[in-house]
Amino acid sequence: QVQLQQWGAGLLKPSETLSLTCAVYGGTFNRYYWSWIRQTPGKGLEWIGETHHSGTTKTNPSLTRRVTISVDTSKKQFSLKLRSVTAADTAVYYCASGGGYETLDYWGQGTLVTVSS
Amino acid sequence: DIQMTQSPSTLSASVGDRVTITCRATQSIGKWLAWYQQKPGKAPQILMYEASTLVEGVPSRFSGSGSGTEFTLTITSLQPDDFATYYCQQYKGFSTFGQGTKLEI
How many C-beta atoms lie closer than 10 Å to residue A58's C-beta? Predict the structure, then answer.
């Protein structure tokens, strides 16, 4: 059974960088792709991007310019950075197992990130 | 992007009812569709993949059908635990989701 535990800052000011990390427990880390998804009342669920133990990443074209996703296989963790945030980036952010072209089978608990001056 | 449209947005039903939720894609996605259930304050949980294959442990009152651009999720004999929001996800292209269907009493 795979479990994901995520953490990161929940309150940011406009123009700052969102930073979240997700730790994976159980399962085989190298078996999966790992994704970040966010959810807002207005836009619903939005896939942000994925990474793999090899270090390859893919991102949603709408966010590519601002997103960096990285992986640390030694710690079984992967991370999200989203630069230059605005109020529109206020959302609940989730990490999940699975890539952008796969189902998302296991999810973290979610982190509410609020962007406000 | 492949856009996904769910209907209805809200569905009122009672325990024991049979309900159907529809999800439409803007282009053919074959059978690359999943359904998720989300309860307030929780992450979505996958119910089904490849349009009609139940995830282990999901009750058989849930079923899915469809291919191409039109898909349905059916729940027979609704139970109290089923009242939640349901989302479809296509993964033919990079993942996109329907806007959700809130199933309420």
Answer: 18
Cβ contacts below 8 Å, chain A against chain B, sum to: 54
**Cβ pair A71, A53 in contact under 8 A:** yes
- Residue A106, class by beta-carbon neighbours within 10 Å (0-12 exposed, 13-18 middle, 19+ buried)? buried
pLDDT (tens digit per residue) in A24-73: 999 888 888 999 999 998 889 999 999 998 889 999 999 999 999 999 99
Is the Cβ–Cβ distance between B96 and B4 less than 8 Å? Answer: yes
Which are the contacts of A91, defined by CB distance < 8 A and separation ≥ 6? A38, A39, A40, A46, A112, A113
Residues B54-94 pLDDT 10s: 999 999 999 999 999 999 999 999 999 999 999 999 999 88
Across the interface, whether the CB atoms of A105 and B46 are under 8 A apart is answered yes
